[in-house]
Amino acid sequence: MAKMKGAIVVDMVSCKGCSLCVEACPTQVIGLADEVNAKGYNYAYMVNPEACTGCSNCAMVCPDSCITVYRMRVAEPA
Fold this sequence. Notes:
The protein has one domain (3-74): Alpha-Beta Plaits. Helices cover 13% and strands 36% of the residues. The protein contains 2 helices and 4 strands; from the N terminus they run βαββαβ. The strands form 2 sheets. It has a two-stranded antiparallel ribbon. Strands 2-3 form a two-stranded antiparallel sheet. The longest helix is centred in the N-terminal third of the chain and has 5 residues, at 20-24.
């Protein structure tokens, strides 16, 4: 089975820091920033990017559709 590598992009302006994505992430990739956005919310970001598998759980639970998920297949050594 091919390995998958993932990455997310969070719209920091729209994120309201509800942390649903943090709870939904099975690999503890997402956390809330110490900084706040223009609306005064601590926005989500990738704390542990190398662990992301691109499962899309975070994007599915985000009530404001702030998260875009990217996936790519990782070539396995022959």
